[in-house]
Amino acid sequence: xxxxxxxxxxxxxxxxxxxxxxxxxxxxxxxxxxxxxxxxxxxxxxxxxxxxxxxxxxxxxxxxxxxxxxxxxxxxxxxxxxxxxxxxxxxxxxxxxxxxxxxxxxxxxxxxxxxxxxxxxxxxxxxxxxxxxxxxxxxxxxxxxxxxxxxxxxxxxxxxxxxxxxxxxxxxxxxxxxxxxxxxxxxxxxxxxxxxxxxxxxxxxxxxxxxxxxxxxxxxxxxxxxxxxxxxxxxxxxxxxxxxxxxxxxxxxxxxxxxxxxxxxxxxxxxxxxxxxxxxxxxxxxxxxxxxxxxxxxxxxxxxxxxxxxxxxxxxxxxxxxxxxxxxxxxxxxxxxxxxxxxxxxxxxxxxxxxxxxxxxxxxxxxxxxxxxxxxxxxxxxxxxxxxxxxxxxxxx
Amino acid sequence: xxxxxxxxxxxxxxxxxxxxxxxxxxxxxxxxxxxxxxxxxxxxxxxxxxxxxxxxxxxxxxxxxxxxxxxxxxxxxxxxxxxxxxxxxxxxxxxxxxxxxxxxxxxxxxxxxxxxxxxxxxxxxxxxxxxxxxxxxxxxxxxxxxxxxxxxxxxxxxxxxxxxxxxxxxxxxxxxxxxxxxxxxxxxxxxxxxxxxxxxxxxxxxxxxxxxxxxxxxxxxxxxxxxxxxxxxxxxxxxxxxxxxxxxxxxxxxxxxxxxxxxxxxxxxx
Lengths: 397, 270
Hints:
A: alpha+beta, Rossmann fold, CATH 2.40.50.140, globular, B: mainly alpha, 11 helices
């Protein structure tokens, strides 16, 4: 787990702060600025393969210098969307523009877009340096400058000593960096990365994620990355688009996607979540009450939508925002009692599976900041779960 | 190494004997002093000497070589193009028919191929000679080339071609500078296969050949009808020698390449 998510129970003030975080900051967020023109724009783009709809009427704007992640399960259309940007697929309906220009008539070799392939697609008959020079030789760069540019790219990915090797003579991680250098050599306006780290082992992948972010910042290139690994998307991206069945379910910054998912699909796809179904009763302001089981205290939660009494909703709460205790907490907006049926020990954290009176299992996560032997509850112990009225989210779809 | 059972030893001996005793006898008798093929009269290389004096045989060898090089080159170009379209062309109208028709000559009786070509040459009024043999051999050997090349293209990572396009290649440039160098081994073995088929062919060549253009197989066949001479044995031994040399060299080279590749991959991991 990375620190960005917060692995401990977050105090409610912090969450309140989080939710109102917008606008005030001067950090990179061109998507909130209506005067910015997007680098790429999808307008009503649809792609069908025969009967199958791979991309279903998508509208999307991606801005310059963004690191944009397309995230979704396999078959959700994320790769098709990327291949349309590269020019390997054409849209069935709708328009894709790059810097305001319709890209439809441009073949892949005429687009200021380069792609890093999942298989790296390094040319096996050429050396590392020749691979990087491949695109430059076909650009309008003068011959005399090509060698210098190749050296520059080799230095960027720290492979200067491997210039004369063939792709089969270097390791997997090095191949990945050659592929990156090759696709960046022509200084494209947009770099597409198709599951760039999928073939690397976990440790190398994490290192490479930070390297990618570093290189993206150094070169100032707009990156669009396709991945099915939510952790990867959250780590590297400035914004994440969660996709399913050819549609964009939610597009937002990683923290907003995690903290305020707009649907049970997103909440469930990103990280772990407890989902509780119920009927809603609006109280004052944006606080609502959710009646979820006969004879149980209704749950209090916050909703940004206006809800009518009796609407079906799902209450979503992250395990790390559920506090677990042996004693009944003094004051908490929400509390339920249950019995620990399972404990998943992850080293730094433990996830407790607590069965409550309705038969539902609620996951609660706590940091193991004390030694296991000191823990005051274990299997089959009755415990209390509690959380604040702002910790969870009320979802209508 | 594990000791072989008596059954395996017998099977191996019988198999090799069956395959190679006829060839061995031919090679031995090519060094026979006597003019009579069946009587051994001591070791001699005089028939090899006479062979190189025989202008008719030398002419036939030259024609065969010319036909082989020209037809296998043409077959390789056409066969590679056909294979590329078959594997990469997607589903175009008439694809199934086209693929069926490419592979038809593989199973077509040679006599029929030869006869139909002969009829065609007569119909268009082409004089039979080296050109007609080249055309005939191209026709039947291009399907072998396309089988060899398409099996390589199927296992070829298509994203390599896409990467080339992405980096600014036109489709033709991508084929020339990425696809072709990578499938080159398959194209070369396709060429060698076509060349061998052309060297071997008797039936189709005899339909397409004219009086002035006799290939070696035709020459040998017609000479043997007048009786087997030690010269023919010598000629056949030379051909066996050339083929054996080619096969052994090719397998040694590829073995060495594989060993080198493995060694380098091991180095890369470290």
